[in-house]
């Protein structure tokens, strides 16, 4: 019986000890979160608005929880002093030029004090130092700004509505562009043409490239002309000769002109032939007479062919002609 | 007329009961501070109340933590606030769910046990026999039991809380890939002494209420074996009801001391 009781008591003791230990551990963990069991030092910052910050809220330095808000005092209507309890081991990292701001832990989280390292070198903070601060934009200010933005957005959308209405009604250049099907067809055609042109240009450029390659490779006349110095010299000589030839031609042409002029103004046979109309008429008549005479002579000859005295001779001539043709 | 008479009788009976209970409580305090103290019996009762209820409390706590997390998860996911699960579950378990569930379980087990035990002793006139033999039955039977319940319940609540948080962290570990370390880090980040201390103080009162009603109902059992059953039954009902009244008062008072 006594043995049973002692086992029971031992079990009870274990239960009680474990339970008490649990309470102690939980208390320690909670206290540890509130920096109750670490050495602290205090810093403060002055704000105009603490945005609902409460005693016990976290203090963060570069995102690490280093302490809690210890006291919030209102000095006057625009000055609120926030006293912070910060772990002593963090003191060396926080410089005197650090800046304290009030932020919130996430979108719906509780408020906290953020200490941000300042720019440049500075010594570490001391116990009771006052940090620089700037007040965060309050949600009310944000809402006010948003309200202005909303009004602007409303104006913009009404303008946009007017513009789109004009567009759909076909007013203005853009409206016409959107609604005129003929213009659209024209544009399409223009684009097709442009496409065709660009293809051609591309082809031409290809050709030009081939030409340029040829020119570079000395195979073609252009290439030769461009690169062969002997040919160039020859060409130069030809050009010089051409030049002198043209001078000669010019001179000859001048002589010819002079000669023609002399003919025009002179009294020679040629002048008479070219200028005198009477002589021309006489000549014309003479020519007609000659023609008539020839016709009559032809008739006479035909008569001679049929005359019995001369007929043998002509037959002989025909036979010889035939023989020559057969051979 | 009959109904009205009945109502008056019931109201009268209700106040009588409250008055009786208050006298019983006053008698307990008077007897508790005056020697001699029954330490051995107190330890035995502590063992019966504490150790014997531990498994039950832990099982309930584990399931409660598990279920609470599983049920809350979809809603928190919908709001994209599933990372707040440890904070939410931690605070709700430590502040309210842990103490109340543990107390209700204990009222079922302990209050009914006390009621039945003392009731049967009363029916079998063992209590009268004790009085005759010179032992103070109130000191020996009632004071030790109420004290045992009062002292043990906070410990049971602590174990219940721990195991409930463990159950919750298991869900988060398997469903949300949250490590146990991160989970408990977040729980203790969310908790403050304002959550732990009122809950612990409250559970002392819960223990006291459970012990008091159990013993009161058992000590005042009527004649006959039927009375034992009634005593056990009414002890549980009354203890559960009083627990919520005490809980309300406790929350009300802690609300004044700690800005919630």
Rounded mean pLDDT score of chain A? 82
The number of helical segments of chain A is: 9
Beta content of chain B:
under 5%
Give the quaternary arrangement of the chains.
heterodimer
Mean pLDDT of chain B: 87
User: Taking strands numbered 1, 2, ... along the chain, how are they ordered across the largest sheet of chain A?
Assistant: 1-4-3-2-6-5-7
List how many beta strands of chain B DSSP finds: 0
Query: What is the share of helical residues of chain A?
Result: 55-70%
Structural class determined from secondary elements of chain A: alpha/beta
The most extensive interface between chains reads:
A-B, 22 and 22 residues
**Mind summarizing the main beta sheet of chain A?**
7 strands, mixed, barrel
Q: Quickly give the structural class of chain B.
A: mainly alpha
> How many H/I helices of chain B?
8
Fold blueprint:
The complex is a heterodimer of chains A (about 325) and B (about 260).
Chain A: H1 2-33, E1 40-47, E2 58-61, E3 64-76, E4 79-87, E5 99-104, E6 111-116, E7 130-134, H2 139-169, H3 172-179, H4 181-216, H5 221-227, H6 229-265, H7 269-275, H8 277-306, H9 311-326
Parallel strand pairs in A: 1-7, 2-6, 5-7
Antiparallel strand pairs in A: 1-4, 2-3, 3-4, 5-6
Helix pairs in contact in A: 2-3, 4-5
Chain B: H1 2-33, H2 39-78, H3 85-123, H4 126-132, H5 137-176, H6 180-190, H7 193-219, H8 225-257
Would you kindly provide a written description of the structure presented here, covering whatever features stand out?
With 327 residues, chain A is of the alpha/beta class. Chain A folds into four domains: 101 residues; 33 residues; 48 residues; 99 residues. Chain A has nine helices and seven strands, in the order αβββββββαααααααα. Chain A has a seven-stranded mixed β-barrel. In chain A, helix 4 packs across helix 5. Chain A is rod-shaped and about 195 Å long. Chain A starts with a helix and ends with a helix. Chain B is an all-alpha fold. Chain B has one domain. In chain B, helix 1 crosses helix 5, helix 2 runs antiparallel to helix 3 and helix 7 runs antiparallel to helix 8. The chains are: A alpha/beta (327), B mainly alpha (260). Chains A and B meet through helix 1 of A and helix 2, helix 5 and helix 7 of B.
